[in-house]
Amino acid sequence: MIQITTASLSNVCVINRLAHQIWWHTYGDFISTEQITFMLNDMYSPASLQTQLQQGHRFKLISFENNFCGFASYCKTSKIGLFKIHKLYIHQNYQGLGLGKALIHSIENEVKALGATAIQLNVRENKALHFYLNMGYKIFDSVNIAYHNFILNDYVMHKQLA
Q: Is 109 within 8 Å of 101 (Cβ atoms)?
């Protein structure tokens, strides 16, 4: 059984644990150990996750058969009607079960109810890119983002919401 819940401050350790399990598998083949370690410490420490929640990021947790196996976060942008997905990860042992689709549909439905007309996200060129294309997202731009001592080469993807 799939269950999606809204995360709270009490869930930051769950998100932190999942991020550490997922990131090494997801990015280990094409991002340096130094960069993964830095980004995990910078974006997924309990303190950073608490700050993100307090700044208006909504986090979702997904579980399958009572096991937390993924998470996502999104927030409203400064552009009217536009929301952004900042994170969407499913543990590698649970991929292929429709959990990513369930999680993204849940977010899309929530932001529509909040007045969204469009949603965007950034993604690297990996298998997630194909997932988002299959979910109706289109590549809007290609960007190089300076992130501390690193450069993030991302696609900006966009989807109009009906």
A: no
Domains in the chain with CATH codes? 2-116 (3.40.630.30)
The 10s digit of each residue's pLDDT in 44-83 is 999 999 999 999 999 999 999 999 999 999 999 999 999 9
DSSP-assigned letters across all residues of 135-150 = TT-EEEEEEEEEETTE
Maximum distance among all Cα pairs of the chain, rounded to whole angstroms: 42
Burial class (CB in 10 A: 0-12, 13-18, 19+), 162: exposed
Residue 75 backbone dihedrals phi, psi, to 5 degrees = -160, 165
